[in-house]
């Protein structure tokens, strides 16, 4: 009776380690990990890039110089835009054809320029002056002003590209009295447009 109980106890003690060794501990449940992100979060990525860009003294100086150039360019552009006078009027090409007066004035008073009638284009009128353009015998653009108040060719000028092409019509010496005071009008040819600038002498307007 005692012997059998001792054997069963011993057998139990031997069988438990054997079972543990056979079965072993249950493996931990593992969830397949998703693929690691190839790129860092945006904030960290930009911060890391900025740190690399200013890592050396020379890179910091280059960035500072670039910033100064951008700021300086913006200031210069603002000054130019604020100091360049705007035209008092911008004239555009019209569909008007030259009449007998314009053709006659060009033929008589601008004969040396050899402006072909087919090249004449009208820009309308400003303060009593008709503005026309054409092309001379050398292929250069020309600008001319017709004063219908006295049937005269106020001025004519031709200039090859890229020279600035303009004429000045003054209230003195050009038989023109269309200004509200003493001064002149400058007409600048821009191709399909002509800008008109009125310049009056101080105290005469």
Q: What would you say about this model in short?
A:
By secondary structure, the protein is an alpha+beta fold.
Computed CA radius of gyration, to the nearest angstrom: 45 Å
Quantity of strands, as a count:
8
Helical content class:
25-40%
Largest sheet: 4 strands, antiparallel
Report what the structure shows.
This protein is an alpha+beta fold and 205 residues long. The protein is 35% helix and 25% strand. It has helices at residues 2-23, 42-53, 57-83, 100-109, and strands spanning 89-92, 121-126, 129-135, 141-147, 152-158, 165-170, 183-189, 193-200. The chain has a 4-stranded antiparallel beta sheet with strand order 1-8-7-6, with no helix packed on it. A 4-stranded antiparallel beta sheet has the order 2-3-4-5, with helices on one face. Strand 7 (183-189) and strand 8 form a beta hairpin.
């Amino acid at each position: 009776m005692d012997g059998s109980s001792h054997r069963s106890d011993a057998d139990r003690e031997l069988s438990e380690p054997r079972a543990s060794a056979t079965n072993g501990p249950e493996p931990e449940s593992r969830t397949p990990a998703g693929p690691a992100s190839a790129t860092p979060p945006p904030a960290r990525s930009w911060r890391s890039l900025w740190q690399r860009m200013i890592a050396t003294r020379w890179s910091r100086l280059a960035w500072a110089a670039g910033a100064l150039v951008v700021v300086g360019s913006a200031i210069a552009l603002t000054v130019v835009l604020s100091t360049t006078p705007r035209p008092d009027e911008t004239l555009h090409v019209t569909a008007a054809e030259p009449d007998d007066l314009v053709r006659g004035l060009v033929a008589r008073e601008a004969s040396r320029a050899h402006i072909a009638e087919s090249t004449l284009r009208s820009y309308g009128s400003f303060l009593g002056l008709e503005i026309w353009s054409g092309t001379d015998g050398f292929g250069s653009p020309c600008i001319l002003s017709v004063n219908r108040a006295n049937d005269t060719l106020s001025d004519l000028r031709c200039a090859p590209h890229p020279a600035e092409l303009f004429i000045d019509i003054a209230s003195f010496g050009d038989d023109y009295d269309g200004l509200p005071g003493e001064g002149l009008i400058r007409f600048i040819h821009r191709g399909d447009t002509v800008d008109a600038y009125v310049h009056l002498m101080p105290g005469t307007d």
